[in-house]
Design brief:
By secondary structure, the protein is α/β, with parallel strands linked by helices. It contains 14 helices and 19 strands.
Length: 455
């Protein structure tokens, strides 16, 4: 295809992943007159906004959908859905054969960090559940076409975690088990009402107490203290007095969350062994810890916590990609500001593939924009229906814009491609789009692949 945009030398860049960071890079490069090809593994490009944020974040999700779509519909951006690099298109192929000026990894963090107990993964589906598939199920289980793993929220689940995502998990468990217990009494309560108003207030309106439901509640085990939970970030160079205020703010948030959703906390608990009965995981042996100079120190004390099953919610990490070396759980970056890989001068990385974090508010470089009030709203600890939590997305977007500007500047210093080379790349792009049934109209495609019963 040849048009006014492709009739002169220009850069042509591949972006792997179309969510927050990928869309930001694509939009910025398109503004600078580059042709940008966005390879997205899913039908829709919304990533962890759709599959990681629980569906009660309705306004935040809608805002991010609109922002991402606005950037992917800019002139010069070519969207290629249902195309996973490493499965449908090789990473080496993109870097070496297609002829792109640069390749930008924005593929996020989709793998769950393994529960750090030897042999734990042997019990997947037999008492062990991971956070990512659990939240994906919660967000999509009401869709008739959903064909992924299904889970049943049960009373007394043991959750191993400690970050914001683990709070999401325990909230799902508590809201859904409370709903089920109320339904057994003939009381139907919408999920969103329980999440916004909180379990005690809804029960009180029906003349009930939490104890009347006969629920034990789930337990969240965390290897540090409650006040160490990474909810409210401390500013750089914080004084001891400021740090104490931050820790106090974290304690208040968790106390409020426990009161509103009635889950329990077990701090200073490090997984140490598995409790198995009848070839099923029924709990975890923990080692008590203490905190010294910010470090977790295991002690000699051990104890057991049992659960109807165990959900591991200790973080998300990038999926390994054939052709990229790993250093521990992350890609082996040589330059973390640009997400550079050794021997690959035209490859850059942005977003959670660099940070190894999977939540929209986990990459909170701009902590000043992430206030205690915004986190409180994100956690649903007032009755505003999460009104005002969008500032968290603004902070994430600001960080993504900084990364996009750095990548755009680096790409701009490379020689542009001649029109024939750009046309050849776009010809291959159109072949792939045709192969997945994408006709080139983004809005029509999104309307086509959005489930009619998506919440």
């Amino acid at each position: 295809m040849t048009d006014a945009r492709t009739a002169r030398p220009r850069h042509c860049v591949a972006v792997i992943g179309g969510a927050t960071a990928g869309a930001e890079v694509a939009g910025r490069l398109a503004e600078l007159d580059a042709e940008v090809v966005v390879f997205e593994m899913n039908p829709r490009p919304y990533g962890k906004i759709e599959d990681g944020l629980p569906r009660w974040h309705k306004a935040l999700r809608r805002k991010e959908y609109e922002t991402i779509s606005g950037k992917l519909t800019r002139a010069g951006v070519h969207f290629v859905p249902n195309t996973k690099v490493g499965r449908d298109v090789g990473f080496e192929e993109l870097v070496q054969d297609w002829g792109f000026s640069a390749v930008v990894l924005a593929c996020g963090a989709w793998s769950d960090r393994a529960l750090p107990v030897e042999g734990a993964d042997d019990y997947l589906g037999r008492g062990l559940v991971y956070q990512n598939p659990f939240i994906i199920w919660f967000n999509h289980a009401g869709e008739a076409a959903y064909d992924g793993p299904r889970f049943q929220p049960e009373d007394g689940v043991l959750v191993v975690g400690g970050g914001l995502a683990s709070i999401d998990v325990v909230k799902v468990l508590m809201v859904e088990t409370a709903r089920a217990a109320l339904a057994e009494r003939g009381i139907e309560v919408p999920m969103l009402e329980l999440e916004v108003k909180g379990i005690p207030k809804v029960l009180k309106a029906h003349g009930l107490r939490f104890e009347d439901l006969g629920l034990e509640g789930c337990t969240l085990a965390y290897r540090r203290r409650v006040e160490d939970m990474p909810l409210v970030e401390a500013p750089e160079g914080a004084t001891p007095e400021r740090m104490e205020k931050v820790r106090g703010g974290r304690r208040k948030l968790i106390d409020k969350a426990m009161e509103k959703y009635r889950f329990k906390m077990e701090p200073l608990a490090m997984p140490d062994g598995l409790l198995v009965e009848d070839d099923r995981l029924v709990g975890i042996r923990f080692r008590r810890t203490r905190i010294e100079d910010g470090r977790v120190i295991p002690t000699d004390e051990t104890f057991e916590l049992r659960g109807s099953y165990v959900i591991s919610s200790i973080g998300s990490i990038p999926e390994p990609l054939p052709g990229i070396d790993m250093k521990g759980e992350l890609f082996a970056f040589t330059d973390w500001d640009f997400g550079r890989l050794e021997g690959r001068p035209t490859v850059f990385s942005v977003g959670n593939v660099v940070t190894g974090k999977g939540n929209i508010v986990a990459s909170r470089k701009h902590a000043a924009a992430v206030s205690h009030d915004a986190i409180e709203k994100f956690l649903g600890l007032d009755e505003s229906g999460h009104e005002g939590e969008e500032t968290l997305a603004d902070a994430a977007a600001e960080a993504a814009r900084e990364q996009a500007d750095r990548v755009a500047d680096a790409v701009g210093r490379q020689p542009p491609l001649d029109p024939a080379s750009v046309a050849k790349i776009l010809e291959r792009v159109h072949l792939r789009q045709n192969a997945v049934g994408y006709g080139g109209d983004y809005a029509d495609w999104i309307a086509q692949v959005t489930p009619p019963d998506l919440e």
